[in-house]
Specification:
By secondary structure, this protein is of the alpha/beta class. The protein has a domain of 183 residues: Alpha-Beta Complex (Spore Coat Polysaccharide Biosynthesis Protein SpsA, Chain A), CATH 3.90.550.10. The chain is 43% helix and 16% strand. The chain has nine helices and seven strands, in the order βαβαβαβαβαβααβαα. The chain has a seven-stranded mixed β-sheet with strand order 3-2-1-4-6-5-7, with helices on both faces. Helix 5 runs parallel beside helix 8 and helix 8 runs antiparallel to helix 9.
């Protein structure tokens, strides 16, 4: 029997924090009425993450481990974990579990109320309360770029705390191509273009370890990734319009009328 919830955790050299995260998840799931599985995707770690997770499997029956032979990237690891999941709903979390386990229930409640995707959105806060100034500035700049380039009407795309209904999102996940940290925004953009209901749920971040260097400031590739996502969407739109023109030129009124109503076509801005 498949579980109700699959929890996917990508991990690369996370031996220091994984015991804390796994202990939190095990305690949380032990009090839930539904069956669940936890999938740790070890992304070719060079520390002892692999050994550590293997040892945890003896005490955590619902824990599964997928290992990449080489470092494939956060996005590639999440994609592998989702495609290997079996739950009705899927929850994806960063290895340091940036929220309370109980907040998972708030995301699942949003799915129960009609959302297909539910994402945790960090509450607005001044720079003085941020863990690091560089991280605050990087996040602010990136949010501006996401709205300017993709027109994606979400406030916080990068928080590592997301849930969704598995079945309608599998085709979306299978179509994704970015392997790094831009996976989150590519995933949300693809879901939004398909007009799937997305709900943001405000929550308070839990800092379980010292803040790492702001990845957004040291990776111009994330800006290039936003442009790739936008241009790829533009190509899909042009292809869809070409298909409409071909059908109309063929003189098939019934098909032409259906395509003219944008049946199964990507959502246009």
């Amino acid at each position: 029997m498949n579980p109700y919830l699959s929890i996917v955790v990508p991990a690369y050299n996370e031996a220091a924090i994984l015991p804390v995260t796994l202990d939190c998840l095990r305690a949380f799931l032990s009090h839930q009425p539904f069956a669940a599985e936890v999938i740790v995707v070890d992304d070719g770690s060079t520390d002892n993450s692999s050994v550590l997770v293997g040892e945890w499997r003896h005490a955590f029956e619902s824990l599964r481990v997928l290992r990449n032979s080489v470092n494939a990237g956060k996005g590639a690891s999440i994609r592998r974990g989702i495609l290997g999941s079996r739950g009705e709903c899927v929850f994806v979390a960063d290895a340091d579990l940036p929220g309370r386990p109980e907040d998972i229930l708030r995301l699942l409640e949003a799915l129960h109320d009609g959302a297909v995707v539910a994402i945790a959105s960090r509450r607005p806060a001044p720079m003085s309360s941020a863990p690091s100034r560089s991280r605050f500035l990087a996040s602010a700049v990136y949010r501006v770029l996401v709205r300017a380039i993709l027109k994606l009407p979400l406030r916080d795309t990068q928080c590592g705390f997301k849930a969704f209904v598995r079945e309608p999102l599998l085709p979306v996940v299978e179509s994704l191509r970015l392997r790094g940290f831009s996976f989150d925004v590519e995933f949300l953009f693809a879901a939004w273009k398909r007009e799937l209901p997305i709900r943001e749920v405000e929550f308070d971040v839990v800092e379980r370890r010292p803040t790492r260097h702001a990845i957004l400031l040291e990776s111009p590739r994330m800006l290039m990734d936003l442009l790739r996502i936008r241009f790829a969407a533009g190509r899909l739109s042009r292809n869809a319009k070409a298909q409409i023109a071909e059908v109309r030129a063929a003189g098939n009124p019934s098909e032409g009328q259906c395509l003219g109503r944008d049946c199964d076509l990507p959502h246009q801005n």
